[in-house]
Design a protein that fits this description.
With 242 residues, the chain is an alpha/beta fold. It is 42% helix and 22% strand. The protein binds ligand GEK and 3-phenylpyruvic acid (PPY). Ligand GEK binds next to helix 3 and strand 2.
Amino acid sequence: MQRDAIYALPQEQVVDFAFNEAVADVFPDMIRRSVPGYETIIGLLGVIARRYAQPHSRIYDLGCSLGASTLSMAAQMRADDVRFVCVDNSTAMTRRCEQILQRHLPAGQFEVQCADIEAIPLENASVVVLNFTLQFLKPADRLAMLHKIHAGLLPGGVLILSEKLQFADAAEQTLINDLHLEFKRANGYSELEISQKRSALENVMIPDTFEQHQARLQVAGFAQVVNWFQGFNFASLLAVKA
Ligand SMILES: Nc1ncnc2c1ncn2[C@@H]1O[C@H](C[S@+](CC[C@H]([NH3+])C(=O)[O-])CC(=O)[O-])[C@@H](O)[C@H]1O
Ligand SMILES: O=C(O)C(=O)Cc1ccccc1
């Protein structure tokens, strides 16, 4: 695995974060060292998919990056005739994702699409995964995305939504954010790397509070919303369609 050193050297001007070739090359290392609980979430969302997958349905992995969620779900799948639809709008990610999935899954069991998840049709879905992807959509576009997912899900289908959280209470925000910074330091990131990446993400990744997610999922039509995992400010929600 290639080590993430993208923000290791001082940059005159830190440009907005993009999922380009350089990021794709180091992505597994970057996300593991940046997101507390990432590997646990990947493993457990496979268990959730195993529970909710319906035969002859589709499983969507939206913002799939290198396909980690799909690999976990496929390895634990029991339902017959399930097709994985993996979508990402970064060609650097989808080219690598296609190669990785080819090595692990039968050709007929998956497709990888390079597209904006806001533009693709969604149908016959039993499970939809948004693993740290919704936070990259413009806030004004997020409700429409959830409406589309709800409409494309079968009765009893689920959305697994993982996100970085923000906290309405200033003291809680400071405390939890400090713990996330400590996690990054513990994983070998320097103060320079941490601060340059924070600038790069500032206009690109805009987190919501748990309450905003819960309210929005309810407006989109989901009957039940449960926070099933949290590591500091990184959480995963399960939203069930009645
Ligand atoms: N509008 C969009 N349309 C399609 N893709 C998008 C869009 N916006 C962002 N992306 C894609 O969403 C992914 C977010 S990373 C997901 C990790 C993965 N789920 C994992 O479980 O390993 C999370 C992170 O890096 O924090 C990137 O690959 C973007 O190209
Ligand atoms: O690095 C961070 O601070 C994050 O919030 C998570 C992240 C992980 C990988 C790419 C972009 C953002």
